[in-house]
What we know:
Residues 198-220 are annotated as: Disordered. It holds the Pfam family SNAPC1. The chain is mostly helical. The protein folds into two domains: 7-181, no CATH class; 260-352, no CATH class. Helix content is 50%, strand content 7%. It has twelve helices and four strands; from the N terminus they run H-H-H-H-H-E-H-H-E-H-E-E-H-H-H-H. It has helices at 18-21, 24-45, 52-62, 75-91, 99-114, 135-142, 157-169, 216-236, 262-278, 286-311, 320-335, 349-352, and strands spanning 131-134, 173-176, 238-246, 249-254. A hairpin with a 2-residue loop joins strand 3 (238-246) and strand 4 (249-254). It is globular and about 75 Å long.
Amino acid sequence: MSLAASTSAGRGHITLQPSFFTSSLYVNSFRDDIRNLIHAYHEQYSQSSEKPFALFKAVWRAQGWEWLHFKVYDNPSREALMNVSHRLLLERSMKTEAPFTRVVALFGLYTFFSTQPSSSAYPLTDFIRSLTLPVDQYSSLLLLPTTLTTDMLMPLQPYVSYILECLVKSEAFHIIPSSDLCAFNPRQLPREIYVDSLSSESNTPTTSKKAGRPSKRDKAKKAKAALDGIDKWMHKTTVPVEGGSTAGASATTHYLLTQPPTQSLTEYKADKKIALEAIGFPSEGHSVVDQVNSEVLERLRQLEETEGPRLNTGGSTSFSGKERAERAVKEMKEKGGLGLLGLLEGSGLDATM
């Protein structure tokens, strides 16, 4: 990425252009920084009795986030820095993320937005006054406090409620159309992909790109690189299990696995309840539920017949999902119940909520 001089930076000064902040050079690195912030705060939060937001500010400063505002002074570039950074923090607060991750992303968004310097030795005149987000994400964000129901997350609830109340009262949110309409500009991040020609194998004289389909060796090399990348990421984001050990070593797990999918489970239960009430179940609607169960089971059987030979890698192909569905349908016919709609009960998810 070229660091071309900006006209507003003055002669002899070099500044980062706005396109740098929408490129993979900034976007990918910033996403890694957010991930490290979430992991560091989770590690401190699980071991500290300090007030949650005070602890977050300590982690925020320890990682140097307070200096991000001074990364660039040129107004167009600073506007790009702020807008892209806000957007990347907001994407980690979406309902598809774990509740704890959403809370840390909201803490970071509020802190970064609220600590814009109003005056400094080098004046920062481009003050961002609004946070742009789609209307569906805005609605989901307002419901975030209701998802913090576990013993670990309950202490965070009043802080989340207060932050959201402050942002709403100050009219900090600029609402745009729903996410599926892609109203953001740019539409997706990163917009520009930086390719390092010096380290790319495809540009070296000895390994030119081959025509046609990739060989088995190329596929295996690509799969191994992807696996190594996942392994490194998992190693950086694992947390110890309290009271757990294996062969004398401390047991670990990924921090996302410690957070049950509270909101998605709640939404699923609510939608299922509405659907069952609409067909009059349990007094009526048995035939409708039975028909749905039969159709889903038949689709799974067809999938086994068509995809089974292709997925068979030597030995036997396991279709545990189909087998579990068959047991659920059989149990419904013999003992009553919901069949496939009742698979959630007894899975262990309810016990953790």
